[in-house]
Amino acid sequence: MKSRISLFLIYVFFALFLFYPLAYVFTKCFYFEGNFSAVFFQYMFTNPVLRECIINSFILGITVTLITTILTLPLAFVMGRFKFRFRGLLSSLMLVPMIMPPFVGAIGMRQMLARFGSINLLLMKTGILKQPVDWLGGGGFWGVVLMEVLHLYPLMFLNMSTALANIDPSMEEAAKNLGADGKHIFRTITFPLMLPGYFAGAILVFIWAFTDLGTPLIFEYTRLVPVQIFNMVTDIGENPMGYALVILVLLLTVTFFWISKAMLGRESYTMMAKGQVPRTEKELKGIGGILFYIFVFAVICISLLPHISVFLTSISGSWFMSILPSQITAKYYGMVFNHPLTVSSIRNSLSLSAVSMIFDILIGLMIAYLLARTKIKGKEILDAIVMLPLAIPGLILAFGYVASFSGGILDPRNNPFPLLIIAYTIRRIPFVVRTAYAGLQQTSVTFEEASQNLGATPFYTFRRISMPLISANIIAGGILAFSFAMLEVSDSLILAMKEQFYPITKAIYVLVGRIADGPYIASAMGVLGMILLAASLFLSNKFIGKRMGELFRI
């Protein structure tokens, strides 16, 4: 009975704050003057500006997905099939881009990639170039692509590595015993078997690149769907085109989410013999080993450029027409804790993230328990609903909140804090659910049965037996929920409309647009945020280890 009540309350929560805003936007898009109409949807494809934005967004998503695939496929294959020195260290370094949101890295990369930025000046000084190159060509398009690739290739790498690890070694061994060479085995056995996991990663990368808001705003590349939606929030009551763009993105993400779930469902049928044959790893040596070391070091060095550029910007007293800052200062770090805008934003983000983390843990534990320890009907539906926030972009959810709750007690124009807490909670619940669910699966149910046989209630048993046993998983999920909420971009940019309510990411965006010291203070805040996220990922990895990669799979 209590399980059914808990399930009902969870469904009510998601119905109110996930499905209702999306349904409201859908209604606004397809109803015109009291009648069902697709006129706004049609106009979206006939308007030359909006059509260009849609095409550009698709090109951006496809380009980023293709480049990350080309980049990570050889990395994942060599890392998973060969033995070589420093493999663990190199694998860890490849995940470094995850510790900083791409829009923060874009602040420093503008300095690096500008017409007379560090890279052009270095290449001209060494004689490689005679004239500066427009690295941000296409009005900033390639700058956005670069930042998205550098930020998202670890997600593709994690998915590919997991897919490769799940392949039954006996299948490849059988092909090898029949005389097939390595190329033939990869083409006919390995790659087809890893396709479900690859598609899951590719879909996640495409959706993320397609819906990213912060990076295009920093590079001022406005002819993209997310930027148009962001600009239409201010006149949401008069301009219905924002609803049509949101529905387009929503249909796209839900379709891809369904495809991903279907592909991963197929994966379980191909792995039935997993673990019967131990995998033998070859030694990586010779010319191939040297080339791989050069390749992986190049990838790591390039992926660290955003972090280096943001750090250099944060400590530069003067940086103009020079490869490196001509003056070094730490004053901007001091200003982070003295500037009125930054101080209030840090306080706001700490409060919002802490409260949302508490809700994430409470709701996430309830859901994980229902999935792992009960036999209630509809668990598959509940699991799909819980994972849906990983697929639905924060941009879409935030727009739906502004549209559906404006004029009521939750109007973000008056006070966005309640909706920010709800948005942060919904977006990070999957982290807590997955970590807690993994802990419950690895904990024998006999401990709980023994407690209940001695007369303890299910709640008492869960509080005194189950929770201590999975405390490491709970802590890991809570840390990730808190840190990612601190650096949430789309929800913060859209919902926080008044300066007194700005979280950290909205303050960074506003500071970048201010002349004089604004970008330098923003960079200092970005470095501090990077340190926070790095520490959280490190601690979470200590608690849950190799299962970290599972958190980033839809």
Automatic annotation (TrEMBL):
Main location (coarse class): membrane
Keyword check for Cell membrane: yes
Transmembrane segments: 7-26, 54-77, 89-113, 133-153, 193-211, 241-264, 290-312, 350-372, 384-405, 469-487, 520-539
Highest taxon above the source species: Bacteria
A cellular component annotation (GO) from this entry: plasma membrane
Localization (cell): Cell inner membrane; Cell membrane
Keywords tagged on the record: Cell inner membrane, Cell membrane, Membrane, Transmembrane, Transmembrane helix, Transport
Membrane topology: Multi-pass membrane protein
PANTHER family from the UniProt entry: INNER MEMBRANE ABC TRANSPORTER PERMEASE PROTEIN YDCV
Similarity field: Belongs to the binding-protein-dependent transport system permease family.
Protein's recorded name: ABC transporter permease
Species this chain originates from: Candidatus Desantisbacteria bacterium CG1_02_38_46
